[in-house]
Amino acid sequence: DPNTTGEMWDMNCNCTGGLLVDCEGTPGGSVLPGSPCDDNNPFTTDDAYDANCDCIGTLPTACDGSPGGLEGLIVETYYIAEPNDAADTDGMGNLIQGATTYRIYVDMAPGYTLEAVYGAPAHTLEMQTSTFFYNQEDRGEATGDLIDGTRLDENTLAIDSWLTFGAAADGYWGVPKVDDPDGSIVGGANNDGGSNAVPGGLLVNNDPNAGVELTVADGLVPMAASGVTTIGFANLDAFETNTESLFTTNSGAWSVLGGIAGLDPAGENRILIAQVTTNGDFSFELNMRLGVPGGGTEDWVASNPQGAERTCSSLTYLNVACPPFGTACDDGDPNTQNDTEDGFCNCVGEVLDCEGVAGGSALPGTTCDDGDINTVG
């Protein structure tokens, strides 16, 4: 028995009497399989020796109760375009009123790194919209790290569509607006007003569906940008033109060499991987590889995991957009006519005035003639 020592021959010529060597190499010691230990990985718990005397810890419980490092994806509504934004032509004039800007973050357990977002033959990656992806063709870029951070005050550049690995511009890291500690450098007084020199600037919509206003927090933290590497894509037209509705690959990826952790690697550990603006129904199916603290990797796929692959429900997403501005609707109010969508998921009708005219001026309190010559006022 290789796990015993000090054996002797007994009177019957049997080799016996050896002391069991414990997991720390001590003959007759008490550190046996099941005993607590330290695997030297600060991100595991309940470390204990297994049957082979290997010290094994338990990784954190991740998305949907699976063990591992992916806690889920976060989709933030970053902004919703209003009429002044849509009227701007400096950004090539393709922005639609009511278009939503989404930011996608990977939320990882402490100590994990993001190594790649990818598509493979068995796991196609897709981002899709029912209309088109908006791209600011004047100053915009296909990857966030290439956006000129000194020009974020210009027209609608701050809501361009791009892929990234943390960076929201050259010199800025992207964080959820609710976590932004330093206010805003985009929108409102920080914006040039675009082609129409709008007083008060563009990107000022305060629609509650977009959360914190961009003029209050821009989701940008000063930090050197991580250079994004793209591999295997025939093109990145979905992030360079205003004609594409589908971005897909089964043989490509975007990444940063060596992988990276979030701004708070020992805490929330979140990384921005894309910003997408569209007025259509937006959906995605994403796959990614995470680096495990202490070594190794985990592959997380949107569906049909094989072998050691894992899946997470938030790797698949669908958001149905508001009907386009001007679409006929019914606001349910019998006292209105000409009901249309306002582009922000609100059906708004014109109030019938006292003469039955939609949007008319004969409202309660205005002057009229009751036909009685004996009355005034």
Keywords:
377 residues; 3 domains; six-stranded mixed beta sheet; four-stranded antiparallel beta sheet; 1% helix; elongated
In short:
This protein is mostly beta strands. The protein has one helix at residues 83-87; strands at residues 4-5, 8-9, 15-16, 19-20, 45-49, 55-58, 70-80, 100-108, 113-118, 125-129, 162-163, 167-169, 172-174, 220-222, 229-231, 246-249, 253-260, 270-278, 282-285, 287-291, 297-301, 310-311, 316-319, 336-341, 347-351.
What characterizes the major β-sheet?
6 strands, mixed
- How are the strands ordered across the major sheet? 15-17-9-20-21-22
**How many DSSP H or I helices?**
1
- Average pLDDT: 91
| Overall number of domains | 3
How many β-strands, per DSSP?
Answer: 25
Low-confidence stretches: none
Shape estimate: elongated
Structural class: mainly beta
> Beta-strand level of the residues, as a percent range?
25-35%
Instruction: Bin the helical content.
Output: under 10%
Distance between the termini: 113 Å
Radius of gyration (Å): 30 Å
Order of helices and strands: EEEEEEEHEEEEEEEEEEEEEEEEEE
Question: Can you walk through the features of this model?
Answer:
This protein has a six-stranded mixed β-sheet, with no helix packed on it. A four-stranded antiparallel β-sheet has the order 7-8-18-11, with no helix packed on it. The protein has three domains: 1-58, no CATH class; 63-319, no CATH class; 326-377, no CATH class. The protein is 1% helix and 30% strand. A hairpin with a 2-residue loop joins β12 (167-169) and β13 (172-174). The protein is built from one helix and 25 strands. The model has no long low-confidence stretch (mean pLDDT 91). The chain is elongated. It has one helix at residues 83-87, and strands at residues 4-5, 8-9, 15-16, 19-20, 45-49, 55-58, 70-80, 100-108, 113-118, 125-129, 162-163, 167-169, 172-174, 220-222, 229-231, 246-249, 253-260, 270-278, 282-285, 287-291, 297-301, 310-311, 316-319, 336-341, 347-351. The longest helix has 5 residues, at 83-87. The protein is mainly beta. The protein starts with a strand and ends in a 26-residue tail after the last strand.
